[in-house]
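This protein record is not my work; I was only asked to verify it. Where you disagree with what is written, explain briefly why. This is what I was given:
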Amino acid sequence: MIKEFLPELLQAVHAASEEILSIYETDFKVLLKDDDSPVTIADKASNEILMACLTKTDILIVSEESEIAEYSERKDQDIWLVDPLDGTKDFIRKNGEFCICISLIKNQVPVFGLIASPVQKEIILGGEEIPAAKIPYHCENPLDPQYHLHRIEEEELNTVIYSRTQVTPRIDSFIEKQSEKHGDIDRIKKGSALKFFDLVKNAAQVYIRLWPTMEWDIAAGHAIYRSIGGEVIDLTNFEPLKYNKADLHNPQFIAKPKNLNLL
């Protein structure tokens, strides 16, 4: 289903990206949602475009910017998880570190993911049916092997990536401990799911997250990374993250190559 639907989905992502960028260049207003998180008209405009496209699949959509179905309705169903503008705070700061995230969840597992960077004009995508790839915007053949991502089989750790804004002493402690085994470790701080661009390129081997995230923030990157040999591990039980839970918050997690052993 994904292969046949991919051209239409990419068209919608391009349209949403253009709308986001057109607003990005203006003095847009910032509003607060009920949970005090910021939202802009770019979030809403992107969501409207993506929802119109994804609705055609007759698969239930769970989006950050739409009313979310009760768990009793979505339990045991395939769902789309959508963040129409991941990194709203970075969008407001105008540092370019924001993206669009779309994933397909089956049996609580992310089987397809797409992350689009409007500023970089690049997309990473992949999953169980689609080979993981990094493609330019308006790519004529996103399935062309020239765009395929290499499988990650890294056993050494040289770079850790984490949130630009949510740094804790526990992350420092984690990096210091890993350096006992792996030597000096570099750091990258970055906003939004763009961190997965670094992971799939092996520019960073570990993404550690000790602050709250939502399922739609991580599922797309998880699907892509998983398809090339990465894993995203729940730090409460050391199992892969699960999705379409009753509570859509993620636990603390680490994303890393499966072959990489940590202390």
User: Anything to note?
Assistant: The radius of gyration is 18 Å. The longest strand covers residues 109-117.
